[in-house]
């Protein structure tokens, strides 16, 4: 039996095929999908397809899309490690697309929902689920600002990696925001939160041996 005929070989062959196929997909596709994820619910709102409370439904659809893009971004490392499918070249575009969608989510809240500056501050400070969402949004900004190759060179790889550990805080915070929005421990947001914790644990597990090896190799 050759390696390609073993279960592992078959999985590896399929992973390589998926990797090769994805190699033909331009990274810009991610941004196009992001724009569609924003434009489509706006179109639905304009054509009356979002029901009796279109602003709220629009807010919810954009929030959910943003969270889903963040989940896909987090899944890339475990996907490479456990399924040998390497889609890491889409990571930066996914992060920036998530920020783009969250900005639209925030803009709907600011300009179509609340609209009153005094209430905006009051909500950010006094409503914990808004505070948590805002914190997650603000954490995305330094990550987006330092996502280019030039920024990595300017900061240095170690400082850049430390800063980007913010991902480990902001994505669970976004999921906690979802849990808090849907009051009463609903199952859907809890599944997102659990899945995100699982993905982050898989990534952390990958980081820890590196640390242990570093310690061991110290004189
Ligand atoms: C990383 C940042 C964020 C993510 C991923 C996110 C995600 C979500 C999700 C998944 C929902 C629930 C959708 C549903 O019920 O199906 C939601 C709802 C909402 N979020 Fe966010 N959010 C973020 C930041 C923010 C910020 C910064 C604000 C405002 C300051 C905000 C305001 C809201 C509002 C008003 C709702 C709708 C609540 C309702 O159902 O009445 N979010 N968000």
How does the major sheet shape up?
Answer: none
Percentage of residues in helical conformation = over 70%
- Kindly state the mean pLDDT as a whole number? 90
User: Which series of helices and strands comes N to C?
Assistant: HHHHHHHHHH
Count of strand segments: 0
Number of helices in the DSSP assignment? 10
Give a brief outline of the structure.
By secondary structure, this protein is mostly helical. 82% of the residues lie in helices and 0% in strands. It starts with 6 loop residues before the first helix and ends with a helix.
Structure description:
With 219 residues, the chain is mainly alpha-helical. The protein folds into 2 domains: 1-117; 127-201. The chain contains 10 helices and no strands. The protein has helices at residues 7-23, 28-46, 54-83, 91-114, 117-126, 128-145, 149-155, 157-164, 167-181, 187-217. Helix 3 packs antiparallel against helix 4 and helix 5 (117-126) crosses helix 6. The N and C termini lie far apart (46 Å). The relative contact order is 0.09. Bound molecules: protoporphyrin IX containing FE (HEM). Protoporphyrin IX containing FE binds at residues 56, 59-60, 63-64, 66-67, 102, 105-106, 109, 130, 133-134, 136-137, 174, 177-178, 181-182.
């Amino acid at each position: 039996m050759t390696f390609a005929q073993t279960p592992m070989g078959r999985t590896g062959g399929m992973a390589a095929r998926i990797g090769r196929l994805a190699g033909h997909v331009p990274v810009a596709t991610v941004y196009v999908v992001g724009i569609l994820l924003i434009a489509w619910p706006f179109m639905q709102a304009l054509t009356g397809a979002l029901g009796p409370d279109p602003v709220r439904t629009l807010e919810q659809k954009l929030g959910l899309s943003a969270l889903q893009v963040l989940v896909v971004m987090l899944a890339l490392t475990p996907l490479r490690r456990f399924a040998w499918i390497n889609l890491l070249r889409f990571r930066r575009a996914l992060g920036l697309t998530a920020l783009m969608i969250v900005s639209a989510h925030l803009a709907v809240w600011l300009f179509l929902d609340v609209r009153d500056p005094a209430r905006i501050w009051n909500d950010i400070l006094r409503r914990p689920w808004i505070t948590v969402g805002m914190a997650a949004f603000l954490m995305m900004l330094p990550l987006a600002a330092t996502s280019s190759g030039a920024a990595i060179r300017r900061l240095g790889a170690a400082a850049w990696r430390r800063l980007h550990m913010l991902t480990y805080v902001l994505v669970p915070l976004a999921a906690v925001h979802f849990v808090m929005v849907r009051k009463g421990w609903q199952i859907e947001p809890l599944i997102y939160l659990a899945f995100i914790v699982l993905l982050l644990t898989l990534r952390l597990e990958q980081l820890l041996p590196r640390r242990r090896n570093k310690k061991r190799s110290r004189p």
